[in-house]
């Protein structure tokens, strides 16, 4: 299996110790993020969403969308997406998947301590798949607040296996994140939302400044006709739709989230999210309306849900 990336040394990456990182955010960051994933984008009076950006009805703090937690992994890697021992072209990196567990609702400001470790490394031949786990703790109390598992799909970086069996390492049981099977029946709910042509330019201000999302030349080198939307921005749109349609606007019902990025989205495209309820789990998929292509699928696990909600 040795190939283009034979300079890659998986053992070096497996033994790498990522440094801990401290990070603080304020209400302004949480509100900017909410606008970046389209909150109040269609209606500034939206009764379900004003609370993410404004102290509505005298509320003391704004509410924080659960997908805000997905920003923590990038902030926890001060050296960026640098993986010692792995040869790859950063311009060909795509976000493959995101898994988030929330152990309590996020407060509107916090001082955090992030602990990062390698969760997985897989040789897919034409690509390498790297999974990074970030645990975020409240700095003062030491309480674990959330965990992210971020998957990067590194095109052109596969083919580093030394034996006929493709290299594959995971630090978690394979059944922990069950694969999503989209039901055949009619969705329980469908929500349509327009991303803005400037969506990626707004979203990047939440901390992901990868030029793939803003620079036309870099986007072309990466194989796209123009800058594409951040995967986590699309995920933010989808989970916001689920909170609106299934959770009756209550973001605190969300316990865990999985999103697999299946195809790129161009800013300005209309996103249609279809949802099915299976027990306490919402299965969803998001398609771009004009191209009729599924771009994202996954699940959202809820703390409690009854059909009377
Ligand atoms: C990180 C922060 C930076 C952010 C950047 C962005 O936001 S970028 C914007 C947001 N991101 C985007 O826009 C990316 C959108 N996604 C895509 O463009 C495509 O899904 C792809 C290019 C990632 C893979 O397509 P393809 O045709 O090359 O793949 P294939 O079907 O031939 O499968 C080959 C193997 O890879 C596996 N595998 C497949 N998909 C994924 C995945 N998502 N995830 C993980 N693994 C995946 C699949 O299971 C198979 O393994 P097996 O079964 O052989 O062991």
From TrEMBL:
<dbReference type="InterPro" id="IPR002539">
    <property type="entry name" value="MaoC-like_dom"/>
</dbReference>
<dbReference type="Pfam" id="PF01575">
    <property type="entry name" value="MaoC_dehydratas"/>
</dbReference>
<feature type="domain" description="Peroxisomal multifunctional enzyme type 2-like N-terminal">
    <location>
        <begin position="23"/>
        <end position="156"/>
    </location>
</feature>
<dbReference type="InterPro" id="IPR029069">
    <property type="entry name" value="HotDog_dom_sf"/>
</dbReference>
<protein>
    <submittedName>
        <fullName>Enoyl-CoA hydratase 2, peroxisomal isoform X2</fullName>
    </submittedName>
</protein>
<dbReference type="Pfam" id="PF22622">
    <property type="entry name" value="MFE-2_hydrat-2_N"/>
</dbReference>
<feature type="domain" description="MaoC-like">
    <location>
        <begin position="189"/>
        <end position="293"/>
    </location>
</feature>
<dbReference type="InterPro" id="IPR054357">
    <property type="entry name" value="MFE-2_N"/>
</dbReference>
């Amino acid at each position: 299996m040795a190939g283009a990336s034979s300079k890659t040394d998986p053992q070096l990456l497996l033994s790498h110790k990522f440094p801990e990182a401290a990070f603080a955010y304020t209400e302004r960051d949480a509100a900017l993020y909410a606008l970046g994933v389209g909150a109040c984008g269609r209606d500034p009076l939206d009764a379900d969403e004003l609370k993410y950006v404004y102290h509505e009805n005298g509320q003391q703090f704004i509410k924080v969308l659960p997908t805000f937690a997905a920003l923590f992994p990038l902030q926890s890697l001060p050296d960026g997406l640098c993986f010692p021992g792995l040869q790859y072209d950063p311009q060909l990196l795509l976000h493959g998947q995101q898994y988030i567990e929330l152990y309590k609702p996020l407060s509107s400001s916090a001082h955090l301590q992030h602990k990062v470790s390698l969760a997985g490394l897989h040789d897919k031949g034409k690509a390498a798949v790297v999974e990074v786990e970030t645990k975020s703790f409240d700095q003062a109390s030491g309480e674990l607040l959330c965990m992210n598992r971020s998957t990067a799909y590194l095109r052109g970086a596969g083919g580093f296996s030394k034996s006929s069996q493709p290299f594959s390492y995971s630090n978690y049981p394979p059944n922990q994140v069950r694969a999503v099977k989209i039901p055949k029946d009619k969705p329980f709910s469908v929500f349509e939302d327009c991303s803005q042509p400037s969506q990626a330019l707004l979203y990047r201000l939440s901390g992901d400044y990868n030029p793939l999302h803003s620079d036309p030349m870099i986007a072309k080198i990466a194989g796209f006709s123009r800058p594409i939307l951040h995967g986590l921005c699309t995920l933010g749109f989808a989970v916001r739709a689920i909170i609106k349609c299934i959770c009756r606007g209550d973001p605190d019902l969300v316990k865990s989230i999985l999103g697999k990025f299946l195809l790129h989205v161009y800013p300005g495209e209309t996103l249609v999210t279809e949802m099915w309820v299976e027990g306490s789990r919402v299965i969803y998929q998001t398609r771009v309306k004009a191209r009729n292509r599924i771009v994202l699928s996954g699940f959202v696990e809820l703390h409690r849900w009854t059909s009377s909600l």
